[in-house]
Amino acid sequence: MRKVLVIFSLFFWGHLMAQDMEAIIKGEREAFHAKKKIKFKRSGQQYDLTYQQLNLSIDPGVRYINGSVYSELTTQESNFTQFSFDLDSRMTVDSVHFEGGSIPFVHNNDEVTLVIPSRAKDNRVDVEIFYQGDPSVNEQNGFSFDYQQSGPISWTLSEPYGAYGWWPCKQQLYDKIDSLDMNITIPKNNKAAGMGNLIKVDTLFPDSGLVYHWQHRYPIATYLVAVAVTNYYEESHFIQLSDGDSIFHLDYIYPSYKPQADTLRWAIDGMMRGFDSLFGDYPFRKEKYGHAMFGRGGGMEHQTMSFMSRLDFDLMAHELAHQWFGNKITCGSWQDLWLNEGWATYSNAIALELIKSKKEHHDFLIKSIGRATRNNGGSVFAYDTTNVNELFNGDMRYRKGAMVLHQLRWQIGDSAFFEATRNYLKNTDVCYGFAYTADFIDEMEAASNVDLSLFFDRYVYKEGFPILSVEWNRINAKTISINLSQTTSHPSVEFFPLRIQFHAKWEGGDSIFTIDHSQAIENIILDLGHKVEELIIDPNYWNLAKYTLFEGDHSDMSAVSIYPNPAEKKVKVFVLDKKVDALEITDCLGRLVAEYEILQLKNSTIDIDVSHLKPGPYFIKVSAEGNQSTTKMIKQ
Predict the structure, then answer these.
(1) For residue 255, is the peptide bond before it cis, meaning its omega torsion is within 30 degrees of 0?
(2) Among 145, 122, 124, which Cα is nearest to 133's?
(3) N or C, which end of the chain has less CB nearby within 10 Å?
(4) In the chain, pLDDT over 90 holds for what percent of residues?
(5) What count of other Cβ atoms lies within 10 Å of the Cβ of residue 619?
């Protein structure tokens, strides 16, 4: 009987987990809409931003902020006299201070332009801009006021170009702020979430207002600076790491969410230990990691304190992974967004592998393969960054990016894969800075000593995936034949070489084996020493591929004798109680090298001359009364 098993095309994934991952993708896509508003109007001369201090007064119940931003910068041009910061024109600039006094400024077209006495190249310049306004009216959606169940809340979300809607900044993706302080004045009974370490909290009199002093001493991209204010409930603990060190973890939680958080928040410990071991040291060990709840769906990986709509497993793993992939190293262009999002998504799978069950880990991979292959085209590399929905294409940048990493791990092995990942994250040319896909490829090739240019060309820069038809059957009691036929989903790639894992099962045992699939059409003969009853393809879901597995008709002729084996000049073939009709000899590539029509009677011994064959392995296929059997023979 001919049985057919269709793999992947009939998988239905659990609604809840898919919903969680898609919510993450949707939220990050919506955040990116801020990019569409910026026109990069900043004029003037070039500078390197080395330090900023945000001094802001925020009342979550009042749609207004006021304060100042102090900046230290290094001039990058000689005769440096004019420069600017980005700030939405609907915010009001009150004054600008330079060297102890006020200086003139122009605030127009979302830009604050300053003119100072001439400075030489590589000189330090310090300025402070005092401003106020309602940032929630600006279309960047970088600053929001809302209500949670226990009271009013305000929060920021600037990815990638929404920061200039609420503070004077250098809005770009190439110059990180080397060091940051945040002094946030808020009403009593509230807390202010910020970056880095909480140095102190001052109490103001007579109204008992509070000033939260946050200090961050690592380079930070402009869009990762954030603040959130509400009547948070606070939880904290130290996460013990495998090397004996520990990381301070801080949760700012809605009071109404406390019952759920008391259970959910502890999952972060296992994630942190696992990622810290696999990826290298948590990038901000000297400070903290934390969560602050906010009013938008999904989450945002603000540096050292992710903003979260909830504390579910997938969201916590995704945002924590971004501290390495996105924060420590930020994609150098939006075309390379998969370095952030593919890695964060694959880290969800790694967290499940480390902490949860094998089934949950596999379920995540199945969902990712299903999403990445539901359309025939699409590349991981983002060629069109002007279309927000295409840039934040969850199937390509997130799911396919994750599966490319998973398959790369399978190709080069765990040791090389994670060694290369750690080397990438500690490369002084890109760590705490920006990187491109080429930087990542360099580290993978160096650690594996493998040329991966074709792998990345097929899976990252080009489109599509392999579609395989695989048919297997027993050709005797101990040997199976596997026929593989590959097409591709998109014409940009003609063929995808694959390492395919198989799981063979028989009565009382099983075996895992691997085939290197290197031609579009192949036949493989394997002697597994047992009568195989079931064959599973890619049981650990290593490959980004669609498979259809057929179980063909079996031939179980057990009374076939071929001897001597190995042979030099002749072999004898005997089949008990069946008349042999024909014999074929093929080489290890499946090429026919000899065939014979047999006229002898049943239970006769047949002599075959093999002296003309070159030494090496061959397969003798015996056809007898409608049955077939194939046996491996070694020619000496």
Answers:
(1) no
(2) 145
(3) N
(4) 77
(5) 21
Which residue matches tokens 């995808």?
Answer: 496
With a cut of 70, say whether residue 38 has pLDDT above it. Answer: no
One-letter amino acid at 494 equals E
Q: Are strands 570-575 and 560-563 parallel, antiparallel or unpaired?
A: antiparallel
Which of 398, 90, 158 lies closest to 296 in space, CA to CA? 158
Q: Which two tokens stand for residue 328?
A: 């420590």
Beta-sheet strands, E only, within 39-178: 47-58, 65-75, 80-86, 92-98, 101-102, 105-108, 111-119, 124-133, 143-148, 151-156
Phi, psi (rounded to 5 degrees) for 272: -60, -45
Q: Which residue has the tokens 């995540």?
A: 364
**Rounded CA separation 7/146 (Å):** 46
Which pTM was predicted? 0.86
List the structure tokens of 517.
């699939």
The token duo for 584 is 């074929």
Residue spans of beta strands (DSSP E) within 449-508? 466-474, 479-488, 498-506
Enter the tokens of residue 144. Answer: 């929001």
Return d(Cα 484, Cα 520) in angstroms, integer: 7
Residue-averaged pLDDT of the chain: 91
Beta bridge partners of 511: 504
Alpha-carbon gap, residue 329 to 621, rounded angstroms: 57
Which residue is it, tokens 């600008």? 96
DSSP 8-state symbol, 491: T
Burial zone of 108 (CB within 10 Å; 0-12 exposed, 13-18 middle, 19+ buried): exposed
Q: Where are the beta strands (DSSP E) in 374-475?
A: 433-435, 466-474
Question: Could you tell me the two tokens for 163?
Answer: 């920061």
510 bridge partner residues: 505
| Mean pLDDT in residue range 356-367 | 97
Q: Does residue 402 come out as left (phi exceeding 0), alpha (psi in the -120 to 50 range) or beta?
A: alpha
Q: What is the bridge-based pairing of β-strands 124-133 and 111-119?
A: unpaired
What token pair was written down for 252? 């700012």
CA angle 348, 351, 355 (to 5 degrees): 145
Which of 31, 1, 2, 3 is CA-nearest to residue 341?
31
